[in-house]
């Protein structure tokens, strides 16, 4: 067992040369806060002569043994394996810059609309930026490390040795934007609220294994876990912190709406958070503007230095991405991430690009690409036969689509964990096979006999052969073609609708629909308003949609919300497919409760195979970089993060001329 002592940073190198083996020197102001005692001063525990050092260490050891049962080790950051890139009191993250200047007005965009100011409830749509700019969590992720978080609101994070609890000691400087102190009572309120019925069901699932929060002191709270889980302390770190006082005045379940709207001028009350920005102005459904808080408590925190440099951040809303591109070219806003190949190659061109006034750049990343696909809703009887789903897979021609529509920019998705070591390859062996074996009679034989193989139209006859195989599968499932229409044994036609949120995707769906028509399937597609689209997804009111299942470098609790039976009937869950399979449930649990890296890898690969050969969606594609376009207003750090989204990188940029008028 090792103990951590609070010392001044400049004494650490000296102590490392002298310390007894059972004393681990660590810089922390509240290393013993979990015992209810202040940090032990260096001059008391560690006098310079070796004799008094040894005596002090012995006395300390006896003190710890007498006052503590299951000890927790306090630290400035936590990770899955105990390793951290950044030491205590690190100056800033490497992907930020000391040269960053504060100021300037950043204008961004979003698609659709918004009608509420509470991002944590199911009903309605909250504006972009509210979660990331106004609210904060106990700790923040390092975008350089796949499994690490560093304290923000929590100054010290102490994971118990038995892994069944974590203690957070709060930074005494932490404040909400109105200047009120952020306390342990607010943390407990946040957990209780987000696990409650009024919150979006995602939070109930994500924080499922955090049993309760106990307030130990005004600045200290303990989270108790219902069972051990390698990442629960990291999940606990991600808890958004809400102001108990604010939501007592503005009931959480109502989404912080107001008839008067005096605070924003638009009928919506701005929420109270502890983040770097406050809501400045709202035009309901159209515009939201955030103002940097001049008294932001965390401005000098290492995990915030060099970030959030813009004085104001405004989001303008557009009905669709095609209109948004033209607005960007007219400089209605400053920066956009581009996820449509045609726009990247053909639409984002012209004199401003040639002259360098607008820049296009591909930002490399090492993200797990996850899976994008045409998702089938198993709640519809039409999709409950696996042979039917496989036939719908065979009808999609990726090679033609990539060459003809995407300018060969994309890579075909071959896994639910694409672009990562968690993707299943070859045949299952070892621990992966051990996880799959109990379900051998239930699972498709291909799970054990065939490596996950994407549909390909390469070679002679390519697409025609795929359609011929699809026809045979449909016949085996009881379908026949009558009068050019595919019907079942009762004469009912095979027809369904593909629901879209962007008209730009219609050109992708159209050739797929034509291939389906060759099989006698009548598929239609329709683009609807983003707000209505979101509502339809929440209620599972669709036949087929395009969806992205994003994955982290360390999959965990979010897998329950993707695939588990327990959320299949819960409105707002991300189990859009409607999966209810005990084999998948067990593999999800193995991912969540894996204690070693090899267990996590084996469980992910096993789940990947089962999902792949269930043919629950038609796999799409991914790209290994972020394509961004921006007006030449920005300076940015020399170093990119490794694991990040484009908007996260943007928050480390700054304006070249902070006083320039738009």
Overview features:
single chain; about 650 residues; alpha+beta; Dipeptide-binding Protein, domain 3; five-stranded antiparallel β-sheet; five-stranded mixed β-sheet; disordered N terminus
What can be said about the biggest beta sheet? 5 strands, antiparallel
- What is the arithmetic mean of pLDDT? 87
Q: State the strand order across the main sheet.
A: 3-8-9-11-10
What's the CATH H-level homologous superfamily of the domain at 371-622? Dipeptide-binding Protein, Domain 3
Give the termini separation: 60 Å
What is the total tally of β strands?
A: 28
Q: Percent helix among the residues?
A: 25-40%
User: Strand portion, in percent?
Assistant: 15-25%
CATH level-3 fold name of the domain at 371-622: Dipeptide-binding Protein, domain 3
SSE-based structural type: alpha+beta
CATH-defined architecture of the domain at 371-622? Roll
Question: So what's the CATH class of the domain at 371-622?
Answer: Alpha Beta
Give the overall shape, derived from the CA principal axes.
globular
> Can you count the helices?
22
The stretches of 5 or more residues where confidence is low (pLDDT under 50) are 1-72, 256-267
Radius of gyration in whole Å, from Cα?
27 Å
